[in-house]
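Bench notes, afternoon.
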Amino acid sequence: MKIKVSEEQLTKAIERLIGIDIIVDTEEEARRALGLILQKTETTKRPDYKGFKEIKLSQKVEHATTAMEHTTVYIIEFVLEDESQLPIEIALIQELQKIFRVTR
């Protein structure tokens, strides 16, 4: 499964959870920010969290109406070892969405 997170949601989550104000300009910076956020989640502390093969992140620029107006979003993809790990994937997505929803 995948979720979409805006650059602003990432930076506000870092500010709220970690207490630092950052700028996210690149995919690598977003990946590092996501790593900091994941460290603060309860789901990643569960033993079955090891069922994730990887968490991918890709950058996408969305254009609202003109080439001048754009928003950078990040697509976070959760890759499982096998489908039996689906409950942990859902739990992590729910927890992350709560974090990012608060930061809007």
